[in-house]
Amino acid sequence: MATPMTTTQIVAQLKKWGVNFKEEPDWETRNRNHVKAWGPVHGFMWHHTGSDSSTANQLSLLKKGYATLPGPLCNFGIATTGVCHLVGWGRANHAGLGDDDVLNALIAEDVKFPVDNEANTDGNSRMYGAEFMYSGSHHMTEAQFITGILLSCAIIDFHGWNENSIIGHGQWQPGKWDPGYKSGTMMDMEAVQKDIATRYAKGPKYVAPPPVADANKPEAKPKVYKDVWNTDSMRKPGTHPSTTNTYWEPESILRYAAEQAAEANRKADLIMKHLGLS
């Protein structure tokens, strides 16, 4: 149980945890507080928008909502680029009615939530909400996921919560399955919680090491092989033109070596003839 952060406090937390964010116009005062007070808050809910349309279109919808469900529809809108847009601050129409048993588990930070089989408790007043801008019928982008992890860390850090204060909409409201990774199927939110705990333990100043190049990938090969890659006639089953191959074929390297040897022999013959030695 906690008092919601102020606009100044959430911005400070986003900066502290290195979240890539953008403040949308009037976000500080865009809310549904006139309907019912926001808080105390007990957790942070992940959603998907259910759409793969443009960021601009989705932001407009998240701010304005529908005729039957007025905006804002979340506090945070996370674009496919990983940018966290601050949409509104206060009560938002995101969680809807959910299960009181789940809310009690959220408050207690239980490791597992009970099955959400009731819709008897208002969640909009009790949780922060983020909408990941994608359909849910496929995986969200890596950039979105990383931002979601960092945003979760920023929130639990401020309130002294742990990863069990993070919940998916599909764990709260019967019939919902967001955030999804394929149609009708929610992500493994327990795995997400573990990822949040792992990142949180490293602290806000942690900087991830640069990715290690895969020596088998063409971009990691010395430039001298580029021409061979681009003209490679070796194709893996089911591939199209050779430039779509994911990995080098051994035959490519052998052919390159043979071509280089042949070229060296040709030059050697020319030199020998020039010197009168052949």
Report what the structure shows:
β3 and β4 (84-86) form a beta hairpin. It is built from 7 helices and 10 strands. With 278 residues, it is of the alpha/beta class. The protein has a 6-stranded mixed sheet with strand order 1-4-3-7-2-8, covered by helices on one side. Strands 5-6 form a two-stranded antiparallel ribbon. It folds into 2 domains: 7-202, 3-Layer(aba) Sandwich (Lysozyme-like); 218-274, no CATH class. The N and C termini lie far apart (92 Å). Helix content is 33%, strand content 12%. The radius of gyration is 27 Å and the shape is elongated. The longest helix has 25 residues, at 250-274. The chain has helices at 7-16, 55-64, 100-108, 142-159, 189-202, 226-231, 250-274, and strands at 21-23, 43-48, 76-78, 84-86, 97-98, 121-122, 127-132, 166-168, 180-182, 185-186.
Give the topology, please.
Elements: H1 7-16, E1 21-23, E2 43-48, H2 55-64, E3 76-78, E4 84-86, E5 97-98, H3 100-108, E6 121-122, E7 127-132, H4 142-159, E8 166-168, E9 180-182, E10 185-186, H5 189-202, H6 226-231, H7 250-274
Parallel strand pairs: 1-4, 2-7, 2-8, 3-7
Antiparallel strand pairs: 3-4, 5-6, 9-10
